[in-house]
Amino acid sequence: MIVLHIDMDAFFAQIEKRDNPALADKPVIVGADPKGGRGRGVVSTACYIARKYGVHSAMPISQAYKLCPHAVFLKPDIERYKKVSQSIMKILAHYSTLLEQVSIDEAYLGLEVNDYEKAVKIAKRIKKEIYEKEKLTCSIGIGPSKLIAKIASGKNKPNGFTVIRPHGVEKFLKDKKVEIIPGIGPKTAEKLKRLGVKTVGDLRRLTQEKMEKLFGKRGRELYLFARGIDERTIERERQRKSIGKEVTFERDISSPQEVIEVALELLKEVLQEAKKENFHFSTLLVKIRYFDFETHTAQTKVNLCTPRGCTNSYTPGVYKMALLKLVLKFLGKKKIRLVGVRVK
Question: Under 8 Å CB-to-CB from 100, ≥6 apart: which residues?
Fold first, then answer.
């Protein structure tokens, strides 16, 4: 099987530009209201013109404003973006039943062929059809696994097209920074750096035993990823793993009562969505971000078990004490910028 990773280019911003041609040559940033540099919240998507100024997704909107004050700032229209996403996924489904939607703007497609020339032709038809029907560009990576296809799709964005055949995997990965490997974030990368490991090639020098000693159960997977080996399959019906909501306050909050009230309201919204989707969960998680962007999370098990079995309740009151215990850990230390609640 050959795997394609289809990744829409600056999806939200691209849709806004498509629907308003006057924005074509302007830096567009989709996210929170910057309020002249005093706004809260973060950037959802920045178009490629805005990215030249250093703006990127998840950046504080106030920082984005400082870097690119002349940008056009737009609030996200998620329902509109979802409709476009559904249209794109329908296009992809025509080419293979092995379709795994990863997010609103990306998906894996498994092709049950071994001929890379055929895969290239199919990928080019996909790019052409998406553009003809939606007037949007995407970047596609083609490879022997999800890992390689995903990394390849990001190589030549926007409107990129990258093919990595099995014999080219080792060379393709060798000089890339370890952060390119899924599961290696800033903390893990720093840990590896202290061992003299900066690139994927460096990582290959560590034995599987050493990797498992350093990273536990994840060690084996990271050991294989460093060698381009990915045992993950295409999940046709990707199960939702969590449901969460968060709020960035208009001003930094020092009042414990105010934070608690917001957290309880978020819990109510999360449980309403979980009930609507018949989502089963066993863990409640709270996220707190202080005014200086220091971020913490805490979680607890909340599965309700009786001699007759375990189930979920979607009544906020059932989880109120569990939520309060989690939130109270973070109150009274610093002013709070953001609070989030999630079940998984």
Answer: 107, 108, 109, 110, 234, 235, 236, 238
Number of Cβ within a 10 Å radius of residue 128: 10
Whether residue 110 contacts residue 1, with contact meaning beta carbons closer than 8 Å, is answered with yes
In angstroms, the Cα distances linking 66 to 17, 36, 103, 280, 337 are 22, 9, 29, 42, 19
How confident is the prediction along the chain (344 residues), in pLDDT tens digits per residue?
999 999 999 999 999 999 999 999 999 999 989 999 888 788 999 999 999 999 998 888 999 999 999 999 999 999 999 999 999 999 999 999 999 999 999 999 999 998 999 999 999 999 999 999 999 999 999 999 999 999 999 999 999 999 999 999 999 999 999 999 988 888 888 889 999 999 999 999 999 999 999 888 889 999 999 999 998 999 886 667 889 998 888 788 889 999 999 999 999 999 998 888 888 888 999 999 998 888 999 999 987 655 555 556 788 888 999 999 999 999 988 999 999 999 99
- CB contact set of 215 (below 8 Å; sequence gap of 6+): 188, 222
What is each CA distance from 102 to 8, 141, 157, 236, 298, in whole angstroms? 12, 15, 18, 10, 26
DSSP for residue 238 = P
**Closest by alpha carbon to 259, among 321, 317, 332?**
332
Instruction: Name the pTM for this structure.
Output: 0.78
Residues involved in catalysis: 106
* Domains with residue ranges and CATH for the chain: 2-9+78-166 (3.30.70.270), 12-74 (3.40.1170.60), 171-225 (1.10.150.20), 243-343 (3.30.1490.100)
DSSP 72-91: EEE---HHHHHHHHHHHHHH
Alpha helices by DSSP H, 68-207 = 78-93, 116-134, 146-153, 169-174, 186-193, 200-203
* Ranges assigned E (strand) in the chain: 2-8, 28-31, 43-46, 72-74, 98-103, 106-111, 138-143, 161-163, 243-253, 283-290, 295-301, 304-306, 309-311, 336-343
